[in-house]
Amino acid sequence: MNATPRWLDADEQAAWDSFIRMQETLVGRLSRLVQADSGMSASDYLVLHKLTETDGRRMRILELAKHLEWEKSRMSHQTRRMMKRGLVAREECPDDARGAFIVATPDGCKAIETAAPLHVEHVRRLFIDALTPNQLRTLGRLSKRVSDHMEKQPD
C-alpha cells in the first residue's frame, strides 16, 4: 500500500459515485420487488438461482459461497434459514465426511420457477431497457474487465 493516498480526481469520483448509486439503487429495488412478488429474500433468490442452474441442483457449501462472494458464515446462516422453510436441504458428501452439499428441494425449485419470470421482467424494465444494445455490450466488456482485474488483486 502506498503511504500517500491516491485521491480520486473529480471525474474518477463522479464515475465512482454514479456507479455506486446505480448499483445500490438497482439491487435495493430488485430485492424489494423479489420479496413482494415471491416472499423470498434476495439472498434466497440468489442461492436458489445458483443451485438450480447446476447439474443435480446441488453444490458444495463452500463452492456456493465462493460463487456468491459470501463468507462461509453468511452462507451457513442463509442455508439454515432456507432449510427451515423447506427451500433447500443438506446432503452429506460421500467423498468427504466433513463436507456437505446444499440441494434445492422441489419446493425451492418451484419457488424459483415462480419468481424468475417476474424477476427477469424487473431486470429488463429497470436495467436492460435503459441501455441500447451497444451500450449493454460495452457495459458487459467493462464489467468483465473490472472483474478480471479484481481477480488479480489481493483481498
TrEMBL record:
Domain HTH marR-type stretches: 1-148
Origin organism lineage: Bacteria, Bacillati, Actinomycetota, Actinomycetes, Streptosporangiales
A Pfam match: MarR
Organism superkingdom: Bacteria
Identification of the protein by name: MarR family winged helix-turn-helix transcriptional regulator
